[in-house]
Amino acid sequence: MVEYAFDQLNLHRVQLEVYEYNERAITVYKKVGFVEEGRRRKQKFLHGEYYDTIIMGILREEWEARR
């Protein structure tokens, strides 16, 4: 999808949000090249606990450097 976003849609950046408890997804996003850009602290309440939302992004030049 990231390749499609940069090659076909000609985007400059791609951004996503993921909850901090989704460690598998965060690991995959980092492997692809996404970096953490910010957090929304204690945004989601689930099973009696609050969790942060992590904002991650990747720029076209970062994506191309990883190819």
Describe the fold and architecture:
By secondary structure, the chain is an alpha+beta fold. It has a single domain, classed as Gcn5-related N-acetyltransferase (GNAT) (Aminopeptidase). The protein is built from 3 helices and 3 strands, in the order H-E-H-E-E-H. It has a 3-stranded antiparallel sheet with strand order 1-3-2. The two termini are 14 Å apart. 12% of the residues are buried. The model has no long low-confidence stretch (mean pLDDT 97).
Q: Which architecture name does CATH use? A: 3-Layer(aba) Sandwich
Q: Could you tell me the radius of gyration in angstroms?
A: 14 Å
Query: How many H/I helical runs?
Result: 3
The CATH homologous superfamily: Gcn5-related N-acetyltransferase (GNAT)
Following the backbone from N to C, one meets helices and strands in this order, namely: HEHEEH
Strand content: 35-45%
Q: How many distinct domains? A: 1
N-end to C-end Cα span: 14 Å
**What is the CATH topology?**
Aminopeptidase
Instruction: Give the class from helix and strand content and strand pairing.
Output: alpha+beta
- The tally of strands reads 3
Give the neighbour order of strands across the main sheet: 1-3-2
Based on CA inertia axes, which overall geometry fits?
A: elongated
